[in-house]
Amino acid sequence: MMTPLRITPYKWLDFLKLATMLLGSNNEVIGVKYFTALVKSTIQDPNKTTRQLAYINALKSCIPNFVCYFGKLTVKPTSANNSWNKI
Predict the structure, then answer these.
(1) Helices within the chain (DSSP H only)
(2) Is the dihedral of CA 60, 65, 66, 71 positive or negative?
(3) What span, in angstroms and rounded, lies between the C-alpha atoms of 32 and 43?
(4) pLDDT surpasses 70 at 79
(5) If we measure between CA atoms, which residue out of 1, 62, 70, 8 comes closest to residue 34?
(6) pLDDT digit string (tens) for 20-60?
(7) Alpha-carbon distance 35 to 43, whole Å?
(8) What is the pTM of this model?
(9) CA 22, 39, 72, 65 torsion-angle sign
(10) Which of 27, 34, 50, 59 ranks highest by number of CB atoms within 10 Å?
């Protein structure tokens, strides 16, 4: 079971610094593309969406050339066995 981030000491991931460290000093990171889907607030956690948007806005304000792309999360049951039949 995963521990919710809000009850851990870890709150921030500097994507620009991470990319720079992974790519090494011979490369230049010219921007960060962040892909996510909006979380839905629940009765148990009505501020979930607000916190996610605050995090994204903080990333935009701290990381040069930061672009956020929103997609949609679709939850539908699938079977791994069905995917092999198509190959």
Answers:
(1) 15-23, 48-62, 80-85
(2) positive
(3) 33
(4) no
(5) 70
(6) 999 998 999 999 999 999 998 999 999 999 999 999 999 99
(7) 26
(8) 0.70
(9) negative
(10) 59
